[in-house]
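Data availability (excerpt). The following record was deposited with the supplementary files.
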Amino acid sequence: MAPTRRAAAPRQRRTTSEQQILDATAALLRAGQRLPDIAVNDIIDAAGVSRSTFYQYFSSKTELAFRLATPAMTATRATADRWWGEPTWGGPEDMVDIVRTLMAQGREHRVAWLAVFDIADRDPDAAAGMETLVREYVSQMAARISAEQRAGNIADALDPTQLGRLMLVTTRASILDQLAHGDPAGDEAFSATLGHLLWLAVRPG
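Predicted structure:
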């Protein structure tokens, strides 16, 4: 039994150190700093860990940004799947409710979202990683749009991949803009407006 206890202790210490780094980074971001401008030394000082410990868990600030944003990405995908993963679609209010949930999740994970897109603006590898995620989800959207076209619900003249990408990119950019510049008191009106706009994209008639 003793070897088992000794093996478990370092694993717990690694988990704690990793979380300290994530928490310290989030605190620096909430204080108004931008991740590309934060030095690794500032992060490890705030986290109370060594430089070698930082690089034990994160190869770069890009990896740190994506790890910080993982809960946000998981929540966002689950919410989007409430529309794109369902065999039948609801009405415009259902779309509005999905945008409302995405906006609320954006507020909850605001610093993580802004950080990962801030990094992607400056790091080609991060930008490529985001593009891969976009293409993967657009493929799912396009398959669903094609099914709606076969059912006669969406015009055949619309390209499924282009429509899916336009909807995803528009939603992402709009939410990021609202997070960066919008008043939280306006989130409900924002959600209603964007939700109805997206509804018209898939139910233009």
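Summary of structural features: Confidence is low (pLDDT under 50) at residues 1-14.
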